[in-house]
Amino acid sequence: MAILILTEKPSVAQSIAKAIGVTGRKDGYLEGAGYLVSWCVGHLVALAAADRYDSHYSKWLREDLPILPNPWQFVVSPVTQKQFDIIKSLMERPDVEELIEATDVG
């Protein structure tokens, strides 16, 4: 079984991996000693623009505010798509039994 540790950035992942004895480098993550250590690269996802909910919102009008969609929609940034897919695949691995979020707070 494996524990997935998700960090804010690659340098933090490297430091944590070193501290817990993880030495195997893969594409977008580190693996070894029962751990997978991966990282975000900026914001992996963002809230969808208002016009994704309704084309009426393509032009902002004061009388439409507040716009409170239910449910909220998220979009993956094209810049971070590869790392998002790597993290998603790690989370879906059958041997992963625990996730530790080691990202910045706030």
Query: Beta-sheet strand percentage?
Result: 25-35%
Low-confidence stretches: none
Structure classification: alpha/beta
Number of strand elements: 7
Helix content: 10-25%
The overall average pLDDT, rounded, is 96
Rg from C-alpha positions?
Answer: 18 Å
Strand order of the largest sheet: 2-3-4-1-7
Count of helical regions: 2
Largest sheet: 5 strands, mixed
User: Separation of termini?
Assistant: 30 Å
What is the count of structural domains? 2
Write the H/E string, N to C: EHEEEEEHE
What best-fitting shape do the alpha-carbon axes yield?
A: elongated
Describe the structure.
The protein has helices at residues 10-20, 81-91; strands at 2-7, 24-26, 29-32, 35-39, 45-47, 74-76, 96-102. It has two helices and seven strands; from the N terminus they run βαβββββαβ. It is an alpha/beta fold and 106 residues long. The strands form two sheets. It has a five-stranded mixed sheet, with helices on both faces. Strands 5-6 form a two-stranded antiparallel sheet.
Describe this protein with a few key phrases.
single chain, 106 residues, alpha/beta, 2 domains, 5-stranded mixed sheet, two-stranded antiparallel ribbon, 7 strands, elongated
Tell me the layout of helices and strands:
Elements: E1 2-7, H1 10-20, E2 24-26, E3 29-32, E4 35-39, E5 45-47, E6 74-76, H2 81-91, E7 96-102
Parallel strand pairs: 1-4, 1-7
Antiparallel strand pairs: 2-3, 3-4, 5-6
